[in-house]
Write a structure and sequence with these properties.
This protein is an alpha/beta fold. It folds into two domains: 8-118, Alpha-Beta Barrel (ADP-ribosylation fold), CATH 3.20.170; 124-295, Leucine Aminopeptidase, subunit E, domain 1, CATH 3.40.220.10. The protein contains nine helices and 14 strands. A seven-stranded mixed sheet has the order 10-11-9-12-13-8-14, sandwiched between helices. Helix 7 (214-230) crosses helix 8 (250-257) and helix 8 (250-257) crosses helix 9. The relative contact order is 0.14.
Amino acid sequence: MIKMNAETIILYRRVGPKELALIRASGHRAFPPRLPQQPIFYPVLNQEYARQIARNWNVKDSGSGYVTRFAVRKEFAERYAVQTVGSSVHQELWIPAEDLAEMNRSIVGLIEVIEEYKSAQTTRWVLKQMNILDEPADALVCSANVNLMLSGGVGAELLTRYGTAMQLALEAKLQTRSPRCAHRGEVVSYTGPEMPYKVVLNAVAIDGWYESSPQIITEVVSRALHMAAEFRAKKVALTVLATGFGRLTLAEFAKGVRPLLGEQFTPLEEVVMCLLQDFQVTELAKHLPEVEVIQVGINAHPK
């Protein structure tokens, strides 16, 4: 952490991946020499300005941008007039390339990387033949009925593996409702120390008669993935909702999921859907050809 004092001034500089690599090679003590077509070195006076350039220029140009912060002796920095090139936020120093080596010698401490930006990439979707509870993940999206009872499938095996704490918590959520039930489209979160996940998301994709639709799947899965992102999940295990006890076909589930395949749920990187039977995987993959299929075998089978 840079410490400010009366003898230094804090400056910021946006850099791309190549320039950052050269900074790291210097031990975070120097900026690399300017190229022949770059006669001026432009450090800026505030973090917001550096952030704007990193996001709007470096990310577009090279796929990633970084904001660096460093302290320079005032006696050096004050040789250069502050240049305002837009609003009051857009202030910078214009340091000739031939003075850069001297500036590097005037840096006090290290050049810190304080922010990083990368181009948005769509979330990776994967389909596996396996028990979903054997798939490591940060968040689990499991199918829930309107009574939030862990009475079958993945919910029942969660109850068997990890005890009754989640069931009791779900029941408590309904105590103040009239009627005491969840609504189709709702996603009820649970966090507990007994679970191997940051969060379990109980997705109610069916009504009291176990009816659903592709539109409901789109809404519920989107809501669940956004909630997983709020818990900083990078990987989500997604149950193929409403196709077990529910009346939805795999083709209808695929129709509901497809609009989400091109979306980004930052910081979520991967969604893994799991089915137990190879014919189920084949059927869903037929309707979701964009999804990567991995067949890894099965240990325990929730019935």
